[in-house]
Design brief:
It is a single chain. With 196 residues, the chain is of the alpha+beta class. Helices cover 18% and strands 43% of the residues. It is built from four helices and 14 strands. The protein is globular and about 50 Å long. The two termini are 21 Å apart. The mean pLDDT is 93.
Length: 196
């Protein structure tokens, strides 16, 4: 077992990659995303599986992929479960999304693949990986609290807008962006989520 800091970087993860073909991340969705990003950059997505022990019962990764949040059950699955490849989502600034991406209170134009899903204001846009379709689930909430959100499934989501700060896996982007893209990577993340 090797302890690394929260949201580990290159110096923390890269030395482990040549030695192990299975890693277990105990922490937040952002911690898992940091490890997945290193696997992507080192071109090791296809050779390393990831188990996940969420530090919070509110983990979006756990909710999306039906992972246990009780620590002992989650650890047992992370150590001995079967690999089930899931979509890995990238953004156009070099990051990855493993759980939930959010753009709040935005005005602009957004597309899911070639379909327009927003022209004007929205209260929020949420993006999550989805294995049942082309890779992304996009939920756009316009107008009042009583208006139902629209949900689309696509390979890519693109937004052009008045500058806003999107968040990925609970981490707010450090600067306001007038364009943002989330899209499915060509390789999946080898997430452990099968039955023990």
């Amino acid at each position: 077992m090797v302890r690394v800091p929260s949201r580990p970087g290159k110096a923390d993860i890269d030395p482990l990659l040549g030695e192990h073909d299975h890693l277990v991340v105990a922490g937040t969705d952002a911690d898992l995303a940091a490890v997945a990003l290193r696997l992507l950059r080192k071109e090791q997505l296809s050779g390393v599986s990831l188990g996940f022990v969420p530090s919070s019962p509110d983990s979006d990764v756990a909710r999306i992929w039906s992972l246990p949040t009780q620590p002992l059950r989650a650890l047992g699955l992370a150590l001995r479960g079967e690999v089930d490849p899931v979509p890995l989502i990238r953004d156009d600034t070099g990051g990855v999304l493993v759980g939930r991406g959010v753009v709040g209170m935005v005005r602009g134009v957004a597309y899911c693949d070639e379909h327009t899903v927003l022209r004007g204001p929205a209260r929020s846009i949420e993006v999550e990986p989805d294995a049942s379709g082309p890779g992304l689930m996009v939920r756009v909430t316009k107008g009042t609290l009583f208006k139902r959100p629209s949900t689309q499934y696509a390979r890519a989501f693109q937004l052009g807008c008045i500058p806003t700060r999107p968040s990925s896996d609970g981490v707010v982007h450090p600067r306001a962006m007038s364009r943002w893209t989330w899209y499915r990577h060509t390789e999946d993340l080898r997430l452990v989520r099968g039955l023990v």
